[in-house]
Amino acid sequence: LGRNILNQGGSTYQLQHRFFVNDPWELMAEAIARAVPPSKSRDIAQSFRLQAEDYFRAATSGREQAVRPVLLYYAFLNLSKAYGVAKGNALLANKAFHGISCDSKPNTIPASLIKFPLGRGTLVFPELLKLLGGNVNILSSDLRLGHLLPQILPVHRLWCYATGRAERFLTVERFEVLHAPGAKQVWLNLYLNRSDLERLNIAPEKVAAQGDLAGFDFAGSTPGAVCFQQHHPDIYLADPAEALALIVKRTRNKIWETVKTASPYRKPYIYRCPPAEQGPRLPQMLSIYLLMFFLGWVTRYSPGDFDDFLDSKYGPFFDTFVSESPVQFLYLMASDLLGREVSKPAII
Q1: 320 in the Ramachandran plot: left (φ > 0), alpha (ψ -120 to 50) or beta?
Q2: Roughly what angle, to the nearest 10 degrees, separates helices 68-86 and 25-35?
Q3: Tens of pLDDT along 132-182?
Q4: Quick check: helix, strand or coil at residue 263?
Q5: Eight-state DSSP code of residue 153
Q6: Residues 48, 49, 55, 56: is their CA dihedral positive or negative?
Q7: CB–CB of 159/152 below 8 Å?
Q8: Band of the pLDDT at 200, cuts 50, 70, 90?
């Protein structure tokens, strides 16, 4: 149940198969050209994309670790502006500001703050948060770095290693879409890995609240999985895909994914966290975006602290994040820009 499995054309829907590409940049260029009519805005969006590509290639081919976060953040920033213009936000084609900042000097790693300053003009991060369906209430207070780090899926177990905390991501074994034609109802069953819950000593009844699965109820276990069922089915008028589209929209930010180079090419998870950290929950791409901004800020304005970070117990976390997360961000963003899943092909 990917976030881009359906294509809507007028009042009809069509299931979409994924694209496999080793390099998604030209595919994104074509998507921008289709989405934005010939205009200055289209030219600007393509310019953002080209800048993003050059920053990205410079960062991923460079050897100096302290330089890479700055280049990668500007790659993310420019690609996000191109994405925003392609999705109809013409304001991002004009002068725009970051919309985020940090402490003038980082504190300890968990206590450092990411801020969302108010101001006139177009602010990129708040606009991106809206486009991705995130909770805009996040912008009303500072975000503690300790609440951001565990949300980074590719390096989550390194966060566990550094902090001694239990894992928060639970593997989704499969999705099951059920259909009652007589009642014109569609609903979703979500199956989590049972051994994850047993290993982490998590009662199934607590998973829905911790994992942002409001509207789902624990519906029993099988030998390998624990089932959570959508409490109220979605109703459609003519096409069952109408209801499926509602389900996809509602769950799009409840499911995290890793981009893989082997079948099934995406591995889904849910993220569970304590009640105090429910508010700072971000769309998956934006957790990567914010942490790269933070590290870029540190390397620019407090480079000695960046070296200390790498030498600390968080060093493996940050080192692997800078190496592995950029490709994850790139393919997730390409998928949302095209409205169709984009994956790396398997190496044969």
Answers
A1: alpha
A2: 30
A3: 999 999 999 999 999 999 999 999 999 999 999 999 999 999 999 999 999
A4: coil
A5: G
A6: positive
A7: yes
A8: very high
Residue 344 · residue 19 · CB < 8 Å = no
185-193 vs 234-235, strand pairing mode: antiparallel
The 10s digit of each residue's pLDDT in 246-276 is 999 999 999 999 998 888 889 999 999 998 8
Cα distance between residue 48 and residue 54, in whole Å = 10
| pLDDT (mean) for 185-204 | 95
Residue corresponding to tokens 């050897």: 63
The Cα-based distances of 195 to 201, 224, 257, 272, 273 in angstroms read 9, 7, 19, 16, 18
Q: How confident is the model at residue 123 (pLDDT cuts 50, 70, 90)?
A: very high
b/e code 210-241 from CB counts within 10 Å (16+ = b): bbbbebbebeeeeeebbbbbbeebbebeeebb
Q: What angle do CA 283, 205, 202 make, to 5 degrees?
A: 80
Q: Tell me the C-alpha to C-alpha distance, in Å, between residue 167 and each of 150, 156, 162, 207, 267.
A: 9, 7, 12, 13, 16
- State the greatest distance between any 2 C-alpha atoms of the chain, in Å, as a whole number: 66
Exposed, middle or buried by CB within 10 Å (0-12, 13-18, 19+), for 15? Answer: exposed
Query: What does the block give as tokens for 215?
Result: 């509207």
DSSP string, 1-60: --TT-EEEETTEEEE-PPEE-S--HHHHHHHHHHHS-SSHHHHHHHHHHHHHHHHHHHHH
pLDDT tier at 336 (50, 70, 90 boundaries)?
Answer: very high
Provide the residue type at 281 as one letter.
Answer: R
What Å distances lie between residue 16 and 5, 31, 32, 340, CA to CA?
Answer: 5, 15, 19, 7
Query: What pLDDT digit, counting tens, does each position of 279-330 carry?
Result: 899 999 999 999 999 999 999 988 888 999 999 999 999 999 999 999 999 9
> Could you identify the residue written with the tokens 């409205």?
339
CA distances from 67 to 3, 55, 282 (A): 33, 11, 26
Report the alpha-carbon angle 211-214-216, nearest 5: 95
